[in-house]
Structures are given as structure tokens and as C-alpha cells.
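batch_manifest entry 22 of 60
target: RRM domain-containing protein
source organism: Araneus ventricosus
requested by: lab member K.T.
priority: normal
notes from requester: please return C-alpha cells only, no post-processing; we will run our own comparison against the previous entry in this batch. if the run fails, retry once and flag.
--- input ---
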Amino acid sequence: SASINFDKIEDATEAFKSNKDVEINGSKLIVVHSTVSSMNKKNKKGKPQKNKKNSNANQGGNPAKKMKFTKKEEISDEE
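--- output ---
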């Protein structure tokens, strides 16, 4: 399998819809799946977003924030 990136969305759409063969270094490939989201990621600028779920684990973080606490109500026998 191989991953192919097109310069234009129109080219990717055309290759997918027409089931066009793509030739790379003498090998013919068939486009079987095309997504726009992967092309949009390439064009985004700025800092890459960190996975919030793993950010505390990588930095140590506060273990109290990672734990869930529940309060138990005390039953009093005052009468």
C-alpha cells in the first residue's frame, strides 16, 4: 500500500471518482480511498496541538488531578 498526496483537492477527487491509475517509479497504483481531511491538515499553520489526554502523563503533572474522588456521607447516630 502507499499514501499519495495531491497538490489540489480537484486532482484527488478526479483520481478517486474516475478510478484513475497513478504511476509512481514505474509502478501502477489504483486510488481506492480519498479524504479531504488529510489534505486540510497539510495546509494548516501554527503549532501542532498536543493530545490533552496524554499531556499530563508526559509532563508529570499533578496526580491529584488525575484521580477521581467521591465523598462518603457519614451516618451519625445522634438522637
